[in-house]
Amino acid sequence: MPRLVSYKNFFLVAVLVVAALTAMRFTDIGRQNLTPMEAAIKDSLAPIQSIFMKIGHTFSGGARSITSLGRMAEENEALKEQVALLKGQVYRLEELRQENERLKSLLQYKDTYSQFFETKTALVIGRDPGNWFGVVTLNKGSKDGILKDMPVVTPLGLAGKVVSVSENTSQVLLITDPRSGVGALVQESRVPGVLEGTTAGSGETRLIHVPKDTQLTEGQVIITSGIGGNFPKGIPIGKIVSISNEPTGLFKTATVVPFADLNRLEEVMVISTVFNPDLLPPTEGD
User: Fold this and answer.
1) Among 102, 115, 116, 163, which Cα is nearest to 137's?
2) Is the Cβ–Cβ distance between 281 and 116 less than 8 Å?
3) Is 256 found in the same domain as 204?
4) Which residues fall in a coiled-coil region (predicted)?
């Protein structure tokens, strides 16, 4: 029995070899026509070839998709970095634009009042942690010609006065601080009073010691009176937003909102010299 199986295997191999050689002979590339056997074999194998071709295309497409997804992920990360960089540039340009506007206002102020004051521009570099809305620190000091009691202004109006000086810095007491006091006038009626700060952080001041029979109205402008010697006459301070009677019944009090935004100071001007008090800018009623 083993010998019979061996003969059968040999015969099968021989048949396969002959079939292969015959297929190779009949599939010569140079021939123009197919034999009936070749045609039959090709027709029978066509569906299988089609299936294998589709499977091959599917795997090839999948591989390309995976490679493409990898490239897309890398491109997406690169684009994100580019967008972040562009956003940073936009923010920086906007900051430069705003800084340019502020510096332009300071320059216009200096040009307008150059015949009355000499000013020194300074940057706000700090605030007192214990009195955040009452005291600020400037980057100019005694070596820059800054002295105690010099007035500090912005293009919009009065900010405060210098209260202490070191070689490179100076501290400014803002007019909103309760310790501040400024001789003031109602610009329209010329009624005098004293402007003082209120509670820290309120952003308001109040005009006190105004005679009870004085006519005060909301919207009236308050300016410096020049009385006391620390502040030149005629510097805008703010406008009245409310009026009340003092507890004694002898005077009125007006709440005044400063023109300058003292909670967001970045650049200020220190008035270092008043050329001639008699040549100060004219105010209404002069």
Assistant:
1) 163
2) yes
3) yes
4) 69-106
